Amino acid sequence: SNLAEIQIKLYNLNFGINEKIEYMGWVNEGVLNNNHPWQSYCARFMIIRGRDVLLFETPPMSITEWLDCGVVYKLYESMLRLVKDAENVDQRQNCFLLQTSNGVSRYFSMETKQGLLDVQCAWHRSICTSMMHIKSRTFYVLFGNNQQPSNLILDWDNGFTLYDNWTNSNVWTYKFSELRGSSDDHISRLKLHFNDNGCIETKELVCQDLQSLLFCVHAFLTAKVVSVDPSYLNTEGIQQL
């Protein structure tokens, strides 16, 4: 609504470019009832700001209430997925899932299709801004048959780089655009498939924080797509970067 847009602009006067609010409004969260085979819905006040998504029971009215938010998820450790109509759990439409790397999955419904698209676009803009600001994330991994202790570095400019901790040198580097796919065992083993001069090169890694790594890769890839999409770049927040 226009009122919400005005509130966001007023709040954003106090925030830096990397902390700006992209979305602020009510969403309906599906809550499972133990005694019934259907869901009830509870209103939540959602804010997508900077690199965080925050959920409140009532809108925050002061800085103290902002800081006391009990439900905060990092965007690069989370994923937003629109639910297809055939996958809706009940008659409610315009649904999406918020999933996190530590196994949290929350189901939401919006009143309108436009409301759903507003949340999705705000999420994408925040992901782009966040990952451009974060620049890089590093994960400890074991590489190859020798289980070589290494760091897998995800970097906005360089893509994927494997750094050997014993030799203190880079083993290989691939751009994000060269990733052709991945597969994993849902526990710790990951295969990354890269395009290497027309051939597919597979790199096998072991990472004890596999889900966080996968969610972070997804965040970087999403941000890269958004950063070159004119439909997202025509927004005030991205233009100021």
UniProtKB/TrEMBL annotation:
InterPro entries for the chain: Syntrophin (IPR015482), Syntrophin_4th (IPR055108)
Protein's UniProt keywords contain Ubl conjugation: no
Primary location: cytoplasm
Intracellular or extracellular location(s): Cytoplasm
Keywords linked to the UniProt accession: Cytoplasm
GO cellular component, one term: dystrophin-associated glycoprotein complex
GO molecular function, one term: structural molecule activity
Origin: domain of life: Eukaryota
Name of the molecule in the record: Gamma-1-syntrophin
Gene name linked to the record: SNTG1_0
